[in-house]
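Continuing the batch. This is chain 6 of the set; chains 1 through 5 are on the previous pages. Same settings as before, nothing changed between runs. Recording input and output for traceability.
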Amino acid sequence: MPLVTLSVFVIVSALLVGALYWQATRALTRLALEQSESELRELAADSGLIPVDILANLIERRIESGGMGLYFLVDANGKKQAGNLNQWPPELELRTGGGFFSYESADGVRHIAVGVAEVLGGGAIVLVGRNVDAAQLLASSLWWWFLAALGVMSVIGVAAMLIGHRALLGRVETMRATSSAIMAGDLTKRIPVSGSGDELDALASSLNTMLARIEQLMGGLQEVSDNIAHDLKTPLARIRSSVEAALRDPRGAPAHREGLERTLEEADELIKTFNALLLVARLEAGAVEGSVEALDAVALVDDVVELYGPVAEDVGCRVVADLQTTAVPLVANRQLVMQALINLVENALKYGRPQSGGSAEISVSVAARSGSVVLAVADRGPGIPPASRERALKRFVRLEASRSQPGTGLGLSLVAAVARLHGGTVELADNQPGLIVRLVLPAGVATQADI
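Output for chain 6:
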């Protein structure tokens, strides 16, 4: 492609040089011809008033004055009467007209001239011309200068093409080497950016963003795989142990029944884990169960508090609604937002007890914030360290090292998926003491009349 571009450049430049040369030659020749025509008109005007011999004397005086003109006058019989040309130019017929012709000077040198001829009164014919050697020399000089400029431009173009092509190939080779390293397994490699801001830099930046995302996904996949191996292996091992213990129990049928009941409980936990995984995957893929609708976020919080009030009392906790307004409009998927709030309340019930013991209180609140709706669940437990809050939103992450509490590690990741699906965010903050989780969702276009 660069070679084609250079070829087109050279051809266009050559045509331009040729056109300039032709125009220069034409302009200089035209000037000489106009001067000859002007002088011819003067002689033709005089010829109607004076005889041919007096006209011949007039021409001779012009020659003797050292003018630039070339003259040749013949009478009606074709006999030379005056002029500084040795003969009538063979290139021009003995008639009215004009054009280029050559002649030989007294020193035997051939010259190029342009002239015009006209028939005068009485049948005499006069030729008036001008030497155009200087114009030809100037045009020739311009031609060679144009050719030299074309050559220099071509050399510069070739050099620039080679340098640019080499630089382009170097950057492409860098990209290829980076791609090869990534394909070999080094996901930390990135394509260097030159800082020039050109199209290749824009491409490199886009590819680096894509590579960073791929690295993040691969790291997440590795982490998920490790956690799945841990979280699913344990219940499966418990199921196997429970079945073996029931089979070895000498009590027979009663022991078998107890073993089956424990197996069902463990199987239910596994089903919950897989259901949570499927739901998170669907949410991250952008699948929404049902369309969004206009709803009241305050009513939604009331429903969650009413649903989990008895459950909290059974474990020695209290769930309260901290509502400072009667209605907050929200356009969202009711089931998904409800599930996100339920996950946050269940997490608070598991991990939100005060470290000093005693009754735990979980607060569920809703507020409007500059075009957004903030649903928050706060507890008085140990909270989450700031360094671990971003990690806590990932799948299968359980900050409890012993993993003594039942769970899948998918609760907060599902909340984050619901937020992303609605174009919102999840914020984890210190409740001093405890943790407060805020689900920030766009309010949408709902109005009070929609609710």
